[in-house]
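In keeping with the milestone schedule agreed at the kick-off meeting, the structural modelling team has produced records for the first pair of proteins. Each record is given below as a sequence line and a structure-token line. The laboratory manager (R.T.) confirmed that both were archived under the project's standard naming scheme.
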Amino acid sequence: MPLALPWPARAQSSLVYLSLEELGNVTITSAARREQHLADAPASIFVITADDIRRSGATRLPEALRLAPNLQVSEVYAGGYNITARGFNANSANKLLVLIDGRSVYSPLFAGVFWDVQDVVLEDVERIEVASGPGSTLWGVNAVNGVINVITRSAADTQGTLASVSGGRRERSAALRHGLGLPGGGALRLYVKRSDLSATETAAGAPVADAGHMLQGGLRADWGGTGDRFTVVGNAYRGNHGQPKPGTIVINGASFALDTIRLSGANLLARWETTLAGGELSVQGYLDRTARVTPPFFDDTLTTADVELQYTLRPARGHTLVLGGELRRSRDRVEHGSPMFAILPERLNQAWSSLFAQDEIALTDELQLTLGARVERNDYTGSEFLPSLRLAWKPSRDHLWWASVTDTVRAPSRFDRDVYIPDRPPYLLGGGPDFRSETARVLELGYRGQVLPAVTLSATAFHADYDQLRTQELAASRTSLYFGNGMKGRVSGVEAWGIVQAAPWLRLYGGIALLHPNMALKPGSHDTGGSVAATEGAMPRRQWQLRAAFDLPRETALDLMLRRVGELAAPAVPAYTTADLRLASRLGADTEIALLCQNLFDRAHGEFTAVETRTQLRRNLMLQLHMRYR
């Protein structure tokens, strides 16, 4: 398929040359855990294609995610990001599940993602599926507000050698990838990538201690075809970056001597897919080890083993049934370097297990009902029940309407249960021994279709009722604090995007997300952390983006992206508008050179944290070179 080609020819070099009907036929897997066309998926899903990434000039995975209008992406410091869907953004954003080639990168330390170590060679990405809204029935707890599914190309599609170099004032990166055939019809891809980030500055011109580098490498191997298919993916990385003020952990009235954060990790995943008794069977397992040294607060080493089984079958006419189960074990070792802060116990083994089922029932040729449920057990709260119901109506090939209701939870993390200040009694903060899962019931109504021959549109209205949200409670003794579930609230909103084929050489993209949060403390809560203001304040009420992709004569491409993000109340961050421009030209069939200008219309802007320590993202010029050797 043209979208998956690693170095497309002129007629396939841009999505401008793909019809809108072909775009609707892009294959996705996030909505139903099986392959289906995007046009048939009754969910709020935005697909970032390989060509979108290439034309954006993004060099890091979080920067590529800015292309999704249903995400809030905030760069906090050089290489450090807060990313969420439908609100609840923070340094510990914990309601978004992220998968890279089927491997969850969720951290049980805080139920979120450490974005400073999540990266791939972007030239090897086939697509990124960004599903906003709950995905817990199929993907498990913590997929409360969305799922990001990063899918790289098969090794068979990346043969030959690719070299990519980017350099500018803010960052420098280089990637080298080589693909070759294996005996028996298999294929292997090897890669290495190096990234260096320069230190940033605050609005007052003060230096921010956030410079860093990352070196990573890995492989992917694929065998098989229409019958048995085998995939092996492995990665390893090592790097460090400065720890900018106020630091990873903030304790009122205490200051710490911050030092460099040291990062390392390795993972190995294997997957086998086959046909069995008229259905499709998939067995996947992976091992993942990460180490994060954050002086003086903690030194965390996490080892995770995960095994997953899925079977897709059609037991009767009009039914497509997905059955599966997952078992995960982790060993967490957290040492603390300051008597003011500790995660206790320092050594903890945890287990998660789950069973899930989803049945897609064709009621008529136009109407489909989807029923799903998952039972997932964790060591903190026991078993959680995660049901969903979805109804889709497709009156014609070009129009799809859908509605859904889902119950979902965000299970406790170590930061909810096991944080103590100081590291021994008497505690000022005594963990959250009774902290329960945060819950949400989400209603959605959506549409996707080709409203005119040259216009496609996707729009979703949603309303979510949250309960048991985290607060910092005053103990009955009035001498200590603990983490409780003293907040509830509602978030309503609309997210929409569309594509306009304005001319054979010009395609326009637009997207908008609107949020209306309403949080409140529950009766009996004695919250001391300003949880309501902090939760509502981190949600921009509106954000929008516009993109234009021009294909010009002489093998030249021009891309413009304009983004507007509304103000934040807590931390107080002004609204900002920023524009990026990329001009690229092909120097022969296998070489492309590009000039990228970021923040074209403003000298600098901040995206998160208090103004005293906030990184200002300044205008940046970057030169990029991509070369392929066949």
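The second protein of the pair:
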Amino acid sequence: MSLDGWNTVLVLGGIRSGKSEFAESLVADAPTVRYVATAADAPADDAEWAARLAAHRERRPETWTTEATADDPRRLADVLASAGPNETLLVDDLGGWVTVLLDPAHQPADDTATIAELAAAVRSCAARLVLVSPEVGLSLVPTTPLGRAFTDALGAANRAVADACDAVVLVVAGQAAWLKPGAPHPATVPAQPGPMQTGPAHAGPAHAGPAQTGPAQTGPAHAGPAQAGRAQFGAPGIPGGAGGSLAASEPSPDVFTPTPPAAPDAVPGAEPTGTAWAAPTMALPMVATGLVIQPGMELPMPDEYAGPQAIERLATLDVPGSGLGVLERAVGFAAATQGTVTPAPWGSVRVLLLHGDHLGDAAAGTVAGESARRARQARAGQGALARLAAESGAELQVVEVPASAPMETEPTLTGEQVEVALRYGWRLAEEAADAGVRLLVLGACGAGTEAAAAAVLVATAGAEAPAVLRRVVTDSGEIDDAAWMRRCAAVRDALHRTRNSPRSAKDVLAELGGGDVAVATGVLLGATARRLPVMLDGPVGVAAAMVTRDLAGQARHWCLLADHGGHPAVQLGADVLGLTPLLDLRLDLGEGANALAALPLLRSVLALAAALPAHPSLGGGEDDEPDTTPDTDEPDFREPEPAGPGPTSTEPDFREPEPAGPGPTSTGADLREPRGAGPDTEAVDPSGRRAG
């Protein structure tokens, strides 16, 4: 048993569940790994199986060695028994091993004895050992003898090996559920479950100790959790933001709820020193489950039924007009993301303001230090963003990201920095979900962010830079066309420089997007994993949403766009993503502030939609007490008066003139005010005769 709680672990999972990637991440911290391949080589006529094997080979780092045991299934036990305590072995997988075991070329063979030998070798193995095996016992019983023999043998092997291992994990649709041991992994599930969650519910035994430090993972494509905190975002030649490069020992950025200042001198103005990117108090979901941020991730989708049903319900509400108009989409979005036809207004809201400048001509026309002033202003509870956050009771978290290199001459980030930024953004979303936040607002305030977002849109949507870059306006309100042309040229040169580069998500972030777009992408992915909706505000968030299409197409369904602000990049990105802005106010108060200005209206709409009953004609109830007045052909508008004499009413008297003497009564409704029986009046019985 190793010091961190396990020496052998069995990773179970179905086809394409992510079990192999998870197993690879568990051993990624090892300097060398012996990869034990159990499957036989693909036949010459099976190109698809050959492609699968090739994909597995390509994922292995160069430092790993491969050892095949397909020629003799008994050899696997010998390999495990002979491994030393300083070695790390990854066996992938037992399904291939059972296939070889049942092959007629190896018959007659004692399957039960061979499986028992393997279990004994696992139990006595001195090396760190990870075994992968498919779980096929959850489907129907095969209809062929050979199929039944395979499932029976594999089930027996899984059971025996699981009993021998220190830990067992089941990977289902990208989610890891630890089955053994039970004590370190309680069944407590966070309030908003996602496929890749943090905390003890899914913390693997290899990561249960205090060594989990956060998102700064580096190394090969499947860098594992043990590498957390080793890398730093800042790179030589790329100056960092406040606090410089990443430091795993520093705390996360402060989260505070701004309040309107009582007096100007009552506002704290000191800027916190240092900004953390990797906190020791929170582990990323990929640290807990071993998954990595990669293309084609399977993240949750909003409820496909709750949204349409909530909009249908709006048509039944007891409102005098035609309803909520285009704001019905807000109700449908909230219903789908909350999984109920009567969604509640977003109570806990957090604004993530990303501050990181882009160097070079991307920031042409920007006053030096202006973005840093805006960030300090937000921290001090001043400015439009902080004031609107105070009005709406929203939390505000200012996140410093290191500056991005000039896109026109070099990549804005290294590949390692992109990985760190994605994981850090994911962790920010995880922290918000764990704190009970129900809506994230994503904004940015760095210099050159519009040009970086435009470059991402050009690369991902086929746009032209002049079409998505709006005019540059100086502090004095004048249009600076020279600065605008420099920004367009920077985007053009960056696209020309990368014309032969891949256009995958991480390549786009490294070459063009920079730190703020990369962190924003991680935020969207992490929020999607935790079923946390995000309100986009500005080009950075929209550009990040464009990048997430390659990583996890589900992310855009958790995004809401309140107002496009008249920004051409936001309008184009929203059109490509299928995000229809709820409003057309063309607000331009700064990223994040525009969304907060619209938030009270959206909250009111959700509260109204949840509180109103159905129309009485559709089965809705009345709030008034039952009407006990007699039925008449016409409504009775009379005001009640006291029975005895008293002061006359000041209201106008709309009574019809009465006949002077007895006569037939009217067949219509009596609209007269009831008269008292005082000295100036005479009581009249129902027949019209005067009493007495």
